[in-house]
Sequence to fold (268 residues):
Amino acid sequence: MNIQKKIDVGLTIQQSAIKADQAHSLKLSGLSLELGGTPILRDISFALPVHGMNILIGPSGAGKSTLLRCLNLLHQSWQGDLHIMDKDVRTWPDGADALRRAVGLIAQKPSLFPCSIAQNVVFGLGRKARKQVSDEHIEQVLRQAALWGEVKDRLHDKALTLSVGQQQRLCIARALALAPKMLLLDEPTASLDPRSKQCIEASLLELAATMPVLCVTHDIEQAKRLGGQIIFMCDGHLIESGDSVDFFARPERIESREFLRWSVCDCS
Ligand SMILES: Nc1ncnc2c1ncn2[C@@H]1O[C@H](COP(=O)(O)OP(=O)(O)OP(=O)(O)O)[C@@H](O)[C@H]1O
Ligand SMILES: [Mg+2]
Fold:
């Protein structure tokens, strides 16, 4: 079977897994994106439940980060249909900035503002809300991001003096300060030591009990620990999605098996 045929069969399998009668926080149908004339994402469809953990995996260059940016409207030139909480994202009430507050995206590379740690935490809040935010709220989100212990005595230091791993956790705290309804995380623990990684995983699992979390990782053991739904992408295609335990025990697609065995995928 050639690769396109295999992909078509796989898409039929994963699309049928989106049950019409099930409540979803996000429904994506037929998303395609070209950048600079090159197809990057190809006819991607999946749904996320109203809460729970969802892990996006796939080889480097598969399109994972690009897909997260589309969900958050950082890329807007895509074709397809995307509803989040039953609302069409293209006509989101109060526009793309309001969508980005509701759907927090923690990017692969931390990007902080040239101000203090505390100011970075509240940066996304409006001016009025920033003045009203309590010290307890700042502490709470820094604790959720497994950073409080390291910064509690230096909240007024410049955020850019933090290590890369600390900056990554500060970005998580900044997203949580906005009380998002959904979280998208792009390799959130890639620069972290094992202890911080474990703390972030525990926080993500706690958050996933109340909201949908979509997390990109290259760490297969982490993907197994976090569980939930797995979405496997390769070369801009969604190859297979489903329950994490089933996926790791019995991947249906040859590309998935190869990826899990070798962590490489030859889709060309
Ligand atoms: N602005 C752009 N213009 C052209 N190509 C782009 C652009 N942004 C991303 N790409 C390409 O799109 C493909 C997917 O990139 P993306 O960053 O989404 O991959 P990824 O799955 O997140 O990879 P990694 O695991 O390495 O982070 C890559 O081939 C990349 O070079
Ligand atoms: Mg990426």
